[in-house]
Design brief:
Blueprint: H1 5-38, H2 46-53, H3 61-84, H4 86-105, H5 110-138, H6 144-172, H7 177-180, H8 182-196, H9 202-214, E1 218-219, H10 233-242, H11 247-266, H12 276-298, H13 307-310, H14 312-341, H15 347-355, H16 357-367, H17 369-375, H18 377-394, H19 405-430, H20 435-471, H21 478-487, H22 492-522, E2 529-530
Antiparallel strand pairs: 1-2
Helix pairs in contact: 1-5, 1-6, 1-8, 3-4, 3-5, 3-11, 3-20, 4-5, 4-8, 5-6, 5-20, 6-16, 11-12, 11-20, 14-15, 14-19, 14-20, 14-22, 15-19, 16-19, 17-18, 18-19, 18-22, 20-22
């Protein structure tokens, strides 16, 4: 018999690596749960928070401040993870997030709580971007749908469980526990990351990446050959070797994103769109955008490098997922109001109508690999967004007032369509770049999706308010509908006006879906230039 000891050692090594990867995946899921729950768990505790701290006129900044901080830090953390590695960025981000959670629990007034929510968001940007990047680092292309479906499940469970957990803690404990429960969960995630996550040294990564790029690239999961342009890789590799960080660019990106997103979030809410504050913010944002271009063009290692938009694949995915963020506003923001005002459901039942898409989305995402391995990433995404366009177009044709099962069925179909759309694009675009560009690429995709959601909230909010004002003679808007729901009485004229306003929003969302379809059809290559793992 031959010597089986080498084979045994290799088997033990594989089992050990698998065990460590399992621990890291558990840490990633816990980290993602922190970021996902934080977006939903606070909403149901707002009455208790306002009753304790006051500040009703500015409580919306509990959500807007967190969203702004997450969005504008995504590109910065993506570049830092490509420069210094995923582990230090993830550990630092988790630590900032937990510090913000502790400070939120100790807040003494609404202003302090909003400021500490911004601190949470500064850490949340690292959690969202770096977790998605590590998911691609840990798994080869053939296995990436597994980890992505797990992360999608975390988001789905958080969307359903978050409001319930927040309500229970606010009702039977204290709203401060909403933030304190983050501490033990985050501590476990940090311990798993520090103990089990091992990244190769920079020199080893450079050798592996050079070898992978020297080999012929493959189209979608190895189905056809493709050529991947690397014309701008040389200067950036030299800069990475020096470990330079474009801190001026990071500050400019942060300031520009913060000002423009603030203008979009508050425009039409805190002040009219054409008022002096709105125009001043947009003017300052455009000036800062020009400054970003100047600073980034001069930087050796820019936070937002030009190749993110010069490469057709990445540019197309960025634009398509920005449209996804835009269209997601229709169901997530307006469907609960529709369910309560038009269908006369209670808040729990209205939440169920929305939450059914969290059942079909992860399932569809997990099964999408069987589709894109046959027809490719782009065509699978086209199939998904095409179906989503039809579902969104069907919503305005629902009967009035209708039954709860009708929008629920549409949401189930929409979740299945978007799962078939989003995951192939994310897996595909991450597979077209090497380790040293994956963080920046993933962050750019997430940044565009988050920005799309912010723009969508502003645009569709204006559309809904315009329809309500036209139907109610200028005496109605979304705030008046919310007040009527709180009072428990919604007049018939208001119900019909809400139905027409939400129908208009869904038509706008279908236009966004159609735009994503056209972008993929006209800009994205038919076969993504996938690099060898």
């Amino acid at each position: 018999m031959g010597d089986t000891r080498p084979a045994t050692r290799e088997a033990m090594k594989r089992r050990t690596a698998t065990g460590k990867r399992g621990a890291v995946v558990a840490a990633l899921m816990l980290s993602m749960a922190l970021a996902a729950l934080d977006s939903t768990v606070v909403s149901t505790a707002v009455p208790q928070i306002v009753g304790d701290l006051g500040g009703f006129s500015v409580f919306s900044w509990l959500f807007s401040g967190y969203l702004l901080a997450v969005t504008v830090t995504l590109p910065v953390y993506g570049k830092l993870s490509d420069t210094f590695g995923r582990k230090p960025v993830l550990v630092a981000g988790a630590a900032v997030f937990l510090l913000g959670s502790l400070l939120c629990a100790l807040a003494w007034n609404m202003g302090a709580l909003i400021a500490f929510r911004v601190v949470q968001g500064l850490g949340g940007g690292a959690l969202q971007g770096t977790v998605q990047t590590l998911a691609a680092d840990l798994y080869p292309l053939e296995e990436r749908p597994k980890i992505q479906s797990k992360l999608s499940t975390v988001w789905a469970v958080s969307a359903v469980a978050g409001p319930a957990v927040g309500g229970l803690l606010a009702a039977y404990a204290d709203w401060r526990w909403i933030f304190l429960v983050n501490l033990p969960v985050g501590a476990v995630a940090l311990w798993l990351i520090v103990r089990h996550l091992r990244e190769p040294e920079r020199e080893s990564r450079a050798r592996d990446e050079a070898a992978g790029q020297a080999a012929p690239a493959r189209g979608d999961a190895g189905t056809s050959p493709a050529v991947h342009a690397r014309e701008d890789a040389g200067p950036e590799r030299a800069a990475r070797a020096r470990g330079d960080v474009d801190w001026a660019g990071a500050l400019a990106v942060f300031a520009c994103g913060g000002v423009l997103l603030t203008a979009l979030v508050q425009g039409g809410v805190a002040w009219p769109w054409l008022s002096a504050p709105s125009l001043a913010l947009f003017g300052a944002g455009l000036a800062l955008a020009a400054l970003v271009v100047v600073v980034e063009r001069r930087a050796a290692q820019p936070i937002i490098p030009g190749w993110v938009w010069r490469r057709r694949t990445i540019a197309a995915v960025n634009l398509a997922l920005a449209a996804l963020g835009l269209l997601m506003v229709a169901p997530t923001v307006f469907l609960p109001t529709y369910a309560q005002a038009v269908l006369e459901l209670d808040p729990v039942s209205a939440g169920f109508v929305l939450s059914v898409w969290t059942l079909s989305w992860p399932l569809s995402a997990a099964l999408s690999q069987h589709v894109y391995r046959r027809i490719g990433f782009r065509d699978t995404a086209l199939l998904g967004i095409g179906a989503a366009t039809l579902v969104l177009l069907a919503f305005p044709f629902l009967p009035y007032p209708g039954e709860a099962w009708q929008p629920a069925v549409l949401m189930l179909l929409l979740g299945a369509a978007l799962g078939l759309f989003q995951l192939p694009l994310l897996v595909g675009v991450q597979s077209t770049v090497g380790w040293s560009e994956r963080g920046t690429t993933t962050a750019s995709v997430l940044f565009c999706r988050q920005t799309g959601q912010t723009v969508g909230a502003a645009v569709f909010g204006a559309v809904a308010n315009g329809v309500l004002a036209a139907r109610l003679g200028g005496a109605g808007d979304l705030d008046s509908v919310t007040r009527a729901l709180d009072a428990g009485t919604v007049p018939e004229t208001t119900r019909r006006a809400v139905a027409e306003a939400v129908h208009a929003v869904y038509l706008g969302a279908s236009c966004a879906a159609a735009a994503a379809f056209l972008v993929l059809l006209c800009v994205a290559p038919r076969r993504f230039p996938v690099l060898k793992d």
